[in-house]
């Protein structure tokens, strides 16, 4: 029997799963102020469905905007975030004006009533960042 046909898939599997090719992430936690926003014209600087990153917002999906100080801490575009008191994983899709500090804005589509009911709360968020050695 020719064992080359058995060994090659094992070598490829090992090579593809080497530690250097598998991204390493860690979760960090932070206490922030959380408000809510909608994709309506009077709440934005331009097109209410386009973010500061140029992404399109789609009502019903879980997005947040972050203050610039949080962006510098690792809340980059498409970072995974969980929010205390809310189900699911949110994606960082927008940035806020420089005047805001230690703040996230939860996207609530066009549901202005839900955003007003949320109000302003202090919450703990958990965010995924690349592991630093």
TrEMBL record:
Q: Which domain of life is it from?
A: Bacteria
What protein is this chain from?
A: 3D domain-containing protein
Organism encoding this protein = Geojedonia litorea
> Species lineage, top-down?
Bacteria, Pseudomonadati, Bacteroidota, Flavobacteriia, Flavobacteriales
């Amino acid at each position: 029997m020719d064992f080359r046909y058995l060994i090659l898939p094992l070598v490829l599997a090992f090579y593809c799963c080497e530690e250097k090719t598998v991204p390493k992430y860690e979760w960090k936690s932070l206490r922030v102020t959380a408000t809510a926003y909608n994709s309506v014209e009077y709440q934005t600087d331009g097109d209410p469905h386009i973010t500061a990153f140029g992404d399109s917002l789609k009502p019903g999906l879980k997005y947040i905007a972050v203050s610039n100080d949080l962006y510098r801490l690792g809340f980059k575009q498409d970072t995974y975030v969980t929010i205390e008191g809310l189900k699911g994983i949110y994606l960082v899709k927008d940035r806020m004006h420089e005047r805001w500090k230690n703040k996230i804005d939860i996207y609530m589509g066009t549901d202005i009533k839900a955003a007003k009911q949320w109000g302003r709360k202090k919450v703990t968020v958990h965010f995924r960042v690349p592991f630093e050695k």
